[in-house]
């Protein structure tokens, strides 16, 4: 298990019963998996945090950010459902390096292009399909409760979204504070040169390193 997946707790491996020993209801199971989904992103989802941050750094306009996050969400939701239900069975040995390289690609694209490209949402959608397979690998390791698959899946996916939106919210607040500090609220030139580009470079190098080490593992 890599660093992005964290450690599974015993309570997560046997989620069929609640604390009182009673079988969980639909809502109780969904609530449990919401917390697991959040935890998979915060603090354990380093892969997905860096990918979302790479998207954020290139999206100085709210509309562009919404388009990309929406594309990413739709894509990873689709492959998470397909893989978790057994329709597709991807190999983690392939998926994990690919996830790392998607991080590097998006970050490097931030460095190459000054403005977000028109095809960026399509690229993010494609990469979201890969990240969904990563979510499914973790989800499958939890030991799914019989008869509660959909409540667990929905809850986990909602938790993942809450985690991702939390990352974006924190990044947006910090971004606004930094722009104010740089006295660059409109032109964004200082923000790009001092924050977005160095941040993208660091994220890109991290993604490349993870991808190479996972291929060689």
Could you please describe the fold and organization of this structure?
Residues 1-13 have low confidence and may be disordered. The longest helix is centred in the last third of the chain and has 33 residues, at 149-181. The termini are close together. Helix 2 runs parallel beside helix 7. The chain has one domain (10-216). By secondary structure, it is mostly helical. The chain is built from eight helices and no strands.
Outline the fold blueprint:
Layout: H1 10-13, H2 26-41, H3 46-58, H4 62-84, H5 92-112, H6 120-140, H7 149-181, H8 189-216
Helix pairs in contact: 2-7, 3-5, 3-7, 3-8, 4-6, 5-6, 5-8
Describe the structure concisely:
The protein has 217 residues and is mainly α.
Largest sheet: none
Series of secondary-structure elements, N-terminal to C-terminal: HHHHHHHH
Integer tally of domains: 1
- Output mean pLDDT: 86
- Backbone CA Rg: 18 Å
General form? globular
Provide the low-confidence segments as ranges.
1-13
Count of helical stretches? 8
What proportion of the residues is helical, as a percent range?
over 70%
Give the distance, in angstroms, between the N- and C-terminal Cα atoms: 11 Å
Strand % is under 5%
Got a strand count?
Answer: 0
Which class do the helix and strand fractions yield?
A: mainly alpha
